[in-house]
Amino acid sequence: MRVSVPPIQSYDRYERIFAEVEAPFAFVDLDAMWANADSMLERSGGKPIRVATKSVRCRALLEEILRRDQGFAGLMTYTLPETLWLAEQGFEDLLLAYPTVDAEALGELALRSVANPAGAPVVMVDCVEHLEAIEAVLGAGAAPVRVCIDIDAGWWALGGRIKVGPKRSPLHTVEQTMVLVREMEGRPQIELAGLMAYEGQIAGVGDRPPGRALRGAAIRWMQRRSATELAGRRGAIVAAVSELAELEIVNGGGTGSLELTAAESAVTELTAGSGFYAPALFDHYSRFSLTPAAGFALPIVRKPSAGVATALGGGHLASGSGDPSRLPAPWLPEGLELDPEEGAGEVQTPLLGETAAGLAIGDRAYLRHAKAGELCEHFNALHLVQGEEIVDVVPTYRGEGQAFL
Fold it and tell me: Domain check: are 169 and 201 in the same one?
């Protein structure tokens, strides 16, 4: 594994690099991204990391990540049309993370399964209805479609009265999982390839929220107990399923839980994606630290008063619960703050703080998205930075005319 050195990130450095680039624009600092990649590989304990495409959303960078180190293997996709498009571009070892009922795309998948049964994408299921949706598009004699069962990785606290974690699969126990596995035995056009469980309450929740020490302690308490419970339950499910079927894949984890999930012997591979860009939501973990690698620049177009600098656009809010943590984070120059009354706006974003007084019309402010790949839904291209120069400009999914969700 090569070890990358995080860059010195400063306003002056980026202003030199982007002196000839007109804002607004988005960029990825490759020095930072590769340093983050090395950090994730170190935390993975030698287990391969499948790259989550939703957190990257740039075909060129997906290619570079998979090409750079054997520690990254395969892609975890988020829609079936995206999966099929990536397959057309030459990507292999594709695992679709979310169930689909897209009949047209399932029909295309069926054709691909005939042409390459072992190399066709694997699709996610968690109920009989998903199996029936697949079978409905398969003709007589069609090759089996390979599927992966999504297991609920949430933690049921207080004797099962409170669910902590993403509301995903209805399959929580060994018994519930085995009912679906046995259902597949009578369906020759369905082939079980693997199991997946995503512990979002650990991987996607920072345990060091700023200014909230008690909440951080509560999160760490929850995560320790959830990780212990899940390790035992996931191991039991894998053991039970393995008595009836040979599993190619047992997938788990996320950027925030790599070292914890890697320690489970039942898990064969991990998934990570956000860690490459290191968005603002990943600033608040105690177990690891990442270097901000992706950002966007906005031009200052107004000075409504001496202490306010108003930027053009900037309303790139992240999906989720809709709380302030989903707002983009002012980054450089240091000391900028969002206006609590306006936040990040559709067409303008007022920036406050002592630093704002020093910004003039025509200057730029750099911000970071709260999440990772969603940034790419707002820009057609990413400027790739290495050292003191722009080394490439590559299209995002959007820049290639692709919008999958």
Answer: yes
